[in-house]
Design goal:
The chain is α/β, with parallel strands linked by helices. Helix content is about 45%, strand content about 10%. The longest helix has 12 residues. The radius of gyration is 17 Å and the shape is globular.
Length: about 200
């Protein structure tokens, strides 16, 4: 059995401009959001990186912003450590992977800083495969990495629309509400699927 889930705690492209605004409050949030939105899809599909677009982004914002501040913005992304505890337990007996609409450099910085990248058998990002979670491609690429089959895999996400494609492929799917953050309920559901975790 393979457990694959969305990085619901470390996605959300609104987070970067919002955090930049907290670090640089003199720059209007609306301006940061507007300028950053131009790059949302290219970043997600791997057509550009944060590093390759940064000078142009700063020019549009009207202020030079150090790449070190961008890294700080990445690192202020909140992490759900209760969920990480579940990942740690699962990774002892199962393959646990990430499927995410995210940029490579952002994900690498976050996972390496928190020293949790070793928990995952595979990490498949939209920017790596040029495809998001509304297509089959990213899911098939993730399965290929671990030589897994959809009918023996679980996909967990916090957006119902992101569960449509994996359901069609044969994944067991689970809609997780990060506001309620009921990890215990998720543990119980995994048990009903024959996945051995403590409840």
């Amino acid at each position: 059995m393979e457990i694959i889930w969305n990085d619901y705690n470390i996605s959300a492209y609104t987070h970067v401009p919002e955090t930049l605004h907290k670090l640089l409050p003199s720059i209007p949030l609306e301006r940061l959001m507007e300028c950053y939105s131009t790059y949302k899809t290219p970043l997600m599909l791997g057509q550009v990186t944060h590093y390759s677009m940064w000078d142009e982004f700063c020019s549009e914002v009207g202020r030079e912003i150090s790449l070190s501040i961008l890294k700080d913005a990445f690192l202020q992304t909140p992490i759900n450590f209760e969920m990480i505890d579940l990942v740690k337990e699962l990774s002892l007996s199962y393959l646990v992977g990430i499927i995410s609409n995210n940029s490579i450099e952002r994900m690498n910085i976050i996972l390496e800083y928190h020293r949790i990248n070793e928990l995952f058998s595979s990490i498949t990002l939209s920017s790596m495969v040029g495809s998001t979670k509304n297509t089959e491609t990213i899911f098939k690429k993730a399965l290929e990495k671990d030589s897994s089959k959809p009918f023996s895999s679980v996909f967990i996400d916090n957006h119902e629309t992101c569960l449509v494609v994996p359901q069609k492929l044969g994944f067991k799917t689970y809609l997780f509400n990060p506001v309620k953050n009921d990890v215990q309920r998720l543990r119980k559901k995994l048990n009903t699927w024959g996945i051995d975790v403590t409840v």
